[in-house]
Amino acid sequence: MKTISRFLSPAQITGIILLSAAVLSFFISSFLAIAIALFYVVLCIAASFFPQSGFYLPVISRGLTGKNLVALTFDDGPSEPITRQILDLLDRYAAKATFFVSGVNAVKHPDIIREIIARGHSVGNHSFHHNPLLMLGSYHYLYQEIFRAQEVLQKMGVNTQAFRPPVGIVNPRLPSVLDKLGMFCVTFSCRAGDFGNRRIKDLSSRILNKTKADDIILLHDVTPGSNEDKFILLAEIEKIMQGLADKGLKVVPLSELINKKIN
Question: Is 115:87 a contact under the CB 8 Å cutoff?
Answer without folding.
Answer: yes
